[in-house]
Specification:
Number of strands: 2
Structural class: mainly alpha
Keywords: Membrane, Transmembrane, Transmembrane helix
Number of helices: 8
Helix content: over 70%
Strand order of the largest sheet: 1-2
Length: about 240
């Protein structure tokens, strides 16, 4: 129970509190940036590792840049932007989500290592089928430039990251990202301009976008660690 709390419950609670504060404080960009910055610092400090720090920095860079490009293309619109179409707190949200859900994914793998090989393979096959099926359907259904760009990045990730951690990271971030965005959209923090699911204002491609993005960040942190590698090495 102690290990579950340390490696799963606490990493889960940090993004959960972040989501709560976003929904409550989003009209106040400076205040929310300070709160998010504190939660980001807590994320890095808790169970500190060099790999997690690299993961966080790449998430900040790629996440913020990606948000800027997508908002500039009018794919979604924030209700209270600060500059460059984005609110001040956005750079902290990506690393909070990606790094904490990476921690949970590693914990899940460690738990499954104690189970039967058939169970581990069964989970991987199931998630693999669901992921590929969703990406294939999204590409076919949308049939636009966004879908094809997403498919290209998915194939890139598939070519270079085929470890169990990549599948669990994809699933965890896809689920966490979609749920968090759903809550934020309902609270009016931002809105999508062309959502497929118009009744809830959500895009079809969102789970894949989060899952692929998390694995691109993981690939960069694994291949080009900014602060060296941990000894003993973290599970990457």
């Amino acid at each position: 129970m102690k290990e579950f709390a340390a490696r799963c419950l606490i990493p889960f609670s940090i993004p959960a509190f972040t989501l709560f504060f976003i929904c409550r404080l989003f009209p106040h960009n400076v205040l929310l940036a300070l709160v998010s910055g504190a939660l980001f610092a807590l994320t890095i400090a808790y169970r500190f590792s060099r790999f997690k720090t690299s993961l966080a920095i790449y998430a900040i860079i790629l996440g913020t840049f990606g948000e800027f490009l997508c908002c500039r293309a009018n794919m979604w619109v924030y209700k209270h932007p600060t500059a460059f179409y984005l609110p001040l707190w956005i750079p902290f949200i990506w690393p909070i989500l990606v790094t904490n859900l990476w921690e949970i994914s590693v914990y899940i793998l460690d738990v499954l290592d104690k189970k039967s090989k058939a169970l581990r393979i069964g989970f991987l096959v199931l998630w693999g089928i669901l992921i590929i099926g969703h990406v294939a359907f999204t590409s076919y259904y949308l049939n636009n430039i966004v879908a094809w760009i997403l498919l290209g990045f998915f194939l890139l990730v598939l070519a270079f990251s085929r470890k169990p951690i990549n599948i669990w990271l994809y699933v965890a971030v896809a689920a966490g990202g979609f749920f968090g965005e759903f809550v934020c959209v309902q609270y009016g923090v931002w809105y999508y301009t062309r959502p497929v699911f118009q009744s809830i204002g959500m895009p079809l491609s969102l789970p894949a976008a989060w899952g692929v993005s998390a694995n691109v960040v993981w690939l960069l942190a694994s291949a080009l660690p900014l602060f060296g590698r941990d000894k003993p090495a973290a599970q990457e």
